[in-house]
Amino acid sequence: MSLLAVNSGQSVILKDIDWGKKLKKKLQDMGMTPGVRINMIQKPAFGPCVVEVRGTRLALGRGIVSKIFVDLI
Amino acid sequence: MNIALAGNPNSGKTTLFNGLTGANHYVGNWAGVTVEKREGKIKYKHQFMTVVDLPGTYSLSPYSIEEIVSRNYILGDEVDVVLNIVDATNLERNLFLTMQLIELRKPMVIALNMMDEVEKLGQKIDVKELSALLGVPVIPITAKKKKGFEELLEALMHKGLVGSGVIYSSEVEKRIDQIENELNVQNKRWHAIKLLEGDTEICEKLNRHEDHIHERISVEKYDYISRLLEKTFIKQIKEKQVGYTFTDKVDKVLLNPFLGVPIFLMIMSMVFWMTFTIGGFFLNIIDVFFGEVLSVWVLKGLEALSVQDWLISLIVDGIIGGVGGVLTFVPNIAFLFIGISFLEDSGYMARVAFVMDGWMKKVGLNGKTFIPMILGFGCNVPAIMSTRTLEEEKDRILAIMINPFMSCGARLPVYALFASAFFKGSEALVVISLYFIGIVVALLAALILRKTILKGEQDPFIMELPAYRLPEPRTLLIHVWERVRGYIVKAGTVIFAASIILWVILNFNASGMTDLTSSFGASIGKGVSFIFKPLGFGTWQASLSLLTGVIAKEIVVSNMMIVYGLAETATSEMLSATLSGVFTQLNAYAFMVFVLLYTPCIAVIGVIRRETNSWKWTIFSASYQFAIAWFIAMLIYQVGSLFL
Ligand SMILES: Nc1nc2c(ncn2[C@@H]2O[C@H](COP(=O)(O)OP(=O)(O)O)[C@@H](O)[C@H]2O)c(=O)[nH]1
């Protein structure tokens, strides 16, 4: 499922990111590697979401959030 | 001895750098690229050390110029020791860069920063064990309070140690070994890892291409870090929590989709309120100093010495008028930069990008583009340089093209002069309206460019939201001082020279000294004044001001000071009396709008050239802005004339 389907307060495991190499690499550098735990901190009605990965808060636009695939824990 | 300071963004790198080197540093650019390079000197126990502050990065991949600059510098011979600053409250992510630095096999020292927060959180880090596992001295510090600096300097003096890097899975290690055996370069292991990562720069350099197992290497690095932390990091969350939990609570409000934008507008208004009221208070003092004290004294002094009239005119009208007219705005500029730096250092700027993302999307940009726009309120040069944070080339060009519409501090003197002369009582409203026109034009320009010559998908929005932290006053002031110093230096050099030249062309013509109306300057102004006729300010004085204003926007004011001999007329009544013969409210407003929007100053044109690496874009930027400015000012004047 996509990260966009995850609600505030839920935790999931990252499976894959469906985007170009450069951006994927950037997200990996920021800690978004396959298998990592992602906590959805804030998911407003519209606009970007806030997730927590490896102790860091990342703001992610909905476009990329919908291309991040995750598994429920 | 040379120290390279590397670390993640928001790890406290700037705080540490300033703490170690004091204000004793130099800001330049890395050779060939416009990434800011800071260098500072330390003297410790009779040893001199130079610290070079590398750009804050998460990694050392070849995708961004900052990261390439950093890694090439560290790999060069110049560096004796790498000082890696690590945010101890965010070890897992920060150690990712550390592990990459270790793979470069340079002697290293790690500064474990934010130890005060670690303590408050009730966590413990086994520093000895961490140091042993990494094979590098690890020094706990609190950069903000300058705690641990003595130990850090001691470690640096001993040049640190080459650490032991990640041990990958046996499968990956086997491949690394294989490649290493076939390579004939220095630092084989690092090159082998880079080849396996498919690092474009290294693959090309060695002309060798492996099957990329990039993702796997990243995952194994993070796994290694996790294991490392299990052995060294003891979490004991107390009842009382600080850091992110506090940040999360604040963000619930500041990032709220309905409240976010209004709150941002309020904060921005406060910044400008401070700029104008507090800054304005000091401005009046300085203004009186230049207008009533300095120029009068100098005038009397020179007369007493029976200096020739022309020289008195040059010094009083040309230099004091021209340079003083610009220097009076130092307090405003300083307060503006204090405000902007506060937003940057506190962590709020990332939130601005967040809340503006929705609006920016509507014009085809991502929220991050808004940060350079706000920085543009200070000065467009660093603002344009900061567009580096945008990955997509088209996004960057677009961000650069619209940035000069953001009204920089150098344009303030022009508004202040005209607003106080023609709009007494509603100065604030007039100035605010100009800032708004700037933003609206920038957004419309973005929209049109995006639909026409810069078509493309916008980059997705990705940004770290650092924990809110109260900026350290010292770092803030050094930051502000760097910018203000730039402004003062400009007044002392470019504006000083331009003022003298202006005075000369305004007092001479081919047959020698003459009065203003038959001077060179007047002829030049008359020559181009036809362009500005439809805008309502087709006088030679205004035309000459605008023409010379391209050197630096403040020169428009210097010019007015000289042309109308305003140096001795300190009060705004006298000022408006002098100017009102030439300007009305309507064409004064059109004039301000034109100054706001037209061709950027030379420094900005230069940075656009370097950043876009294209004359085509540079020329385009200068000319389309002129056209837009002309058109809008014309519209204001012509439509206004119908009603007024
Ligand atoms: N509590 C705490 N805050 C710090 C410390 N060092 C830096 N900061 C704050 O962390 C924020 C980011 O620091 P800065 O030096 O701008 O980080 P940079 O982005 O790495 O250059 C600022 O608000 C600093 O005041 C520290 O040791 N303890």
Instruction: Tell me the overall shape of chain B.
Output: elongated
Structural class of chain A: alpha+beta
Annotation, overall tally of beta strands of chain A: 5
CATH class of chain A: Mainly Beta
- Tell me about the largest β-sheet of chain B: 8 strands, mixed
- SS-based class of chain B: alpha/beta
Mean pLDDT across all amino acids of chain A = 92
CATH superfamily of chain A: Ferrous iron transport protein A (FeoA)
Number of helices of chain B: 28
Q: What's the CATH architecture name of chain A?
A: Roll
Tally of distinct domains of chain B:
2
Rg over alpha carbons of chain A: 11 Å
What composes the largest sheet of chain A?
5 strands, antiparallel
Give a count of the beta strands of chain B, DSSP E runs of length 2 or more: 13
Can you describe this structure?
- The complex is a heterodimer of chains A (73) and B (644).
- Chain A is of the alpha+beta class.
- Chain A has one domain (3-72): SH3 type barrels (Roll).
- Helices cover 18% and strands 38% of the residues of chain A.
- A five-stranded antiparallel β-sheet of chain A has the order 4-3-2-1-5.
- Chain A starts with 10 loop residues before the first strand and ends with a strand.
- The model of chain A has no long low-confidence stretch (mean pLDDT 92).
- With 644 residues, chain B is an alpha/beta fold.
- Chain B has two domains: 1-242, Rossmann fold, CATH 3.40.50.300; 260-643, no CATH class.
- Helix content of chain B is 62%, strand content 9%.
- Chain B contains 28 helices and 13 strands.
- In chain B, a hairpin with a 2-residue loop joins strand 3 and strand 4 (47-53).
- The radius of gyration of chain B is 28 Å and the shape is elongated.
- Chains A and B meet through helix 1, strand 3 and strand 4 of A and helix 3, helix 10, helix 11, helix 15 and strand 11 of B.
- Strand 4 of chain A pairs antiparallel with strand 11 of chain B, so a sheet runs across the interface.
- Bound molecules: guanosine-5'-diphosphate.
